[in-house]
Structure of Peptidase A1 domain-containing protein:
Amino acid sequence: MRNAFVVAASFVICCSIFYIRDCHVPNSGRNDTNKGSPSSPDYHLYNHTIFLPFVEPFSSAEVPLVSITVNATHIDMPIDTGSTGTLIGAPLLPGISNDIGTPAYQFYSSSRLLYTGRLVDLEIEFHGSAGGRNHSFPGSYALATVPVLVVDTSLRCPWYDEQVDTFECPPNPKFPTPTPKKTNNITYMGVGFGRNKMAEKNRNDTPRSNPFLNVGKIDGYFGPYRNGYTVSTKGVHLGLTEQNTKGFVFVNLKTGYTHDEDPRDWAMPDMCFGINRWEDMNCGSALIDTGIPQMYLRTDIGVEIPNVTVHNPSHEELWVKRVKPGTEIMVGFPGTGGKFASEYSFEVGGGEAVEPSFAVPEGQAPPPFINTGRNFLYGHSVAFDADGGRFGPWCSANAMESLLNRHRMNHVLLPHRSTVCCFLLTHVSASGIMPTILGAWKSVCACVEM
Ligand SMILES: *[C@@H]1O[C@H](CO)[C@@H](O)[C@H](O)[C@H]1NC(C)=O
Ligand SMILES: *[C@@H]1O[C@H](CO)[C@@H](O)[C@H](O)[C@H]1NC(C)=O
Ligand SMILES: *[C@@H]1O[C@H](CO)[C@@H](O)[C@H](O)[C@H]1NC(C)=O
Ligand SMILES: *[C@@H]1O[C@H](CO)[C@@H](O)[C@H](O)[C@H]1NC(C)=O
Ligand SMILES: *[C@@H]1O[C@H](CO)[C@@H](O)[C@H](O)[C@H]1NC(C)=O
Ligand SMILES: *[C@@H]1O[C@H](CO)[C@@H](O)[C@H](O)[C@H]1NC(C)=O
């Protein structure tokens, strides 16, 4: 009898009307870490913004692209929220002679790629939805001038040590000298925050080099402008307004290393994650990284992540560790009152849209850290307020969309305003919804406007 009422993982029940910020906020048992920066700024005072649509539909497989022009070259530029600073291969910029700029380098630890070249201050034109400079269309272009690394050489250096090495990949007796790669196709724009570390000698990873934080003009004007941006699966808003910050659940950020020199410098957001249960909570910082599809997790001492060793023929290491399928990963962003402002969870191998392509256990090395990878955006939009030091995930329309796609349902309203209905997508039985205890929410919070 009971089975007759069980609808497998696809029944939508309207629980009640909530404000979106009340959408699944379990008690994390953690004290507030938010202090220092102002809360609830008057976003209605700001009306200057531009929407940059992604060039291609958002996909787990690719870094999202926005359309830009730099020094008369059109580029569909990959946007990486996991790093800071712009790279363009020298052959793409024939207008920039090879003797101008300040020698510099950039190393990416995830890809082990070392780029060397010259930093040149360049004006970047972002193309809004009208496709570029078009004075009859508001929001058609924005200009930002930042130092760009014009790349002369590029190579993969697996043994590069960021603490010691600089412009060169040091010789390694065990491996042949890496062959330089072509530079005619190098384009990369890091727009992340909290990525600068004092330890690093190369300092092109500060807000000064972040094109999203150095917008000078939008459509030729610089109006009341709130420095910051939002990112969703659809694209990017440069400049925060009341309209484009609606629905975000903001938490305050700690100051970044160079905040005293540059008030736009903020640290990565605080985060706690649990493995199968919240009790072994790992609290540290989070990186929402559009640059990669996978997830990295680092736990506190004593917290083991169930893992399997798998064959990895495409890299130097033949065997690599992955989080074991079936493991539940729960991630929360601490808000006020010992509660999470926002959180999500998924089961490794469960196939949800927010699940990363794979999850890498990085071992027990405090402070805990999580890099969510870009699939996070399937469940949330994110906002970064560089003037106020605030970060906001938003349990977004995409969550609903992706869940509906998964469960082959269609035609439901998607949220725009703050009044929403929270849906629980789970097993339904004669006794109603299954218990709403932690861990029972197999899907990200899904909210629909009423
Ligand atoms: C929160 O802070 C108060 C006062 O500092 C302390 O007494 C309490 O134990 C803390 N609670 C937790 C869960 O850390
Ligand atoms: C933006 O705000 C400024 C100052 O508050 C105002 O003068 C201007 O008309 C506003 N523009 C729009 C498009 O609302
Ligand atoms: C490209 O950059 C060079 C060097 O800064 C400058 O002389 C030239 O005017 C620029 N061209 C364009 C189209 O921006
Ligand atoms: C401005 O954009 C509109 C709509 O896309 C287009 O019809 C018009 O030709 C554009 N004007 C210019 C000068 O590009
Ligand atoms: C340049 O990169 C793009 C995107 O990664 C790729 O589609 C294209 O084939 C590359 N072109 C060359 C000449 O390598
Ligand atoms: C992987 O699992 C083993 C035991 O199965 C454990 O000792 C080890 O700490 C785990 N690795 C990580 C990175 O959690």
Q: What stands out?
A: The radius of gyration is 22 Å.
